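Predict the assembly for these two chains.
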Amino acid sequence: MRRKKNKLIALALTLMGMMVLLAGCGDDLASQDVLKRVKASNEISWGVKSDTRLFGLMSIRTGKVEGFDVDIATAVSKEIFGDQVEVNIVPVTSNTRMSLLKNGNVDALASTLTITPERKKEVLFSDVYFNAGQALMVKKGSKIKSVKDLTKGTKVIGLQGSNSVDNVKKAAPEAKILQLPDAAQAFAALKSGQGDAMTSDNAILYGLAADDSDYEIVGGTFTKEPYGLGINLGQEKFQKAVDQALKAIETDGTYAKIVKKWFGKIDGFDGGVVK
Amino acid sequence: MITILTDHWADLVSGVRITLSASLLALLGSLIIGVIFALFVISPLKPLRVLGNIYIEIFRNIPLLVVALFFYIVIPQFVVQIDGFTAGTIGLTIYTSAFIAETVRAGIESVDIGQMEAARSNGMTYLQAMTYIVLPQAIKIVIPPLGNQFVNLVKNSSVLAFLAGFDLMYQANLIVSSTLKTTDTYLAVGLLYLLMTMPLSYLMRYLEKRWAKQPAND
């Protein structure tokens, strides 16, 4: 009986010890001042999507993640810390990006993160760096022409971890919504007829439709999706520096160059970019 | 964590319901298919043995996600339109049945060959001897490893989250994306999975103990 009790106490102590350790790890990196640390180590990490064409996509040729978000993150880092700063691009998904930021695995997010009031409770946002809007993609010849055609019995495919789904719920409450883990899988599901339309931010959909001419974007945008860079709570100084850097790259023309590089050739891109 | 449970209770409950129904369907299905293929593998007929081995080796050695995605993406394009829940449950059933077939085969082979010989020499056919003499003994032997398979099956049902199957994991991902409360949500969901798998573990342990007490051939 006594031995059993001792065992229990030992177990409880071990568990508590582990919790303390975990908690200790948790706030160490993330609560350090990013500005100071990067200045000391000359190295900054950004969380970027690696599966989103045009914004952040792993290039098979170079083995690196390339896209609009990567270029913005690099430009902002160089503006703040100087040209010789080393920029690490860490691939994230919609589901993992928040934990990676909070753990301190990445210093900031440039991952097509839409600014919403609810998210503002968990993360600091920079100023808007890209104004996207939500749109619908369908197979050519589909009877769905806009969000109004999403009536009862239609199925819409969306992406997990994105807020586009909540918007469809508001715009078309009768439609059934299926959420898939990433853009490639969602597109595959649309192709195999799991849904009648796919919804996401227009910029992402243009990237997919550029790949397959059987699919088109219909009805224009029905929401505003301002993207912001994500920064840990408590890092107000870093947030300020990022905002200043965004303004600086806008005035010196770097921003316009990056926009042109990624969206200049997109057919029918309706210029949702207003910063 | 409490706020996640209270704010999203309805979503979580519907997720648990889907997870449980997918698991139950797959459990029944994979048990039946698994026993059939186990019998194929030990059958005296060569074509059946070959067929059984091919089935087991293929589905035991492909990741569950690939099997499930095959039913979700490929089958609708060429055969019949099925939704994420159906595709996921079929994938789970087939994947698990390969493991159950192996488990049951091992169980049958561990029953002394003399049992089969004695039954046959008393005038039973092969099928009768298998059904009345060998299988009842084998089942008692395979209860513990089978229990592991069933617990794995409940956990593996989270594959539905990748196919828009509306299960518990799917709901968890949605809650995370709207609240950004990653740790709390996955902790709460882990707890709910525990509530589903622990009783199953205890039930299997109880059966194991109870059947171990009885003589082998009742």
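The longest helix of chain A spans residues 2-31. The longest strand of chain A covers residues 124-132.
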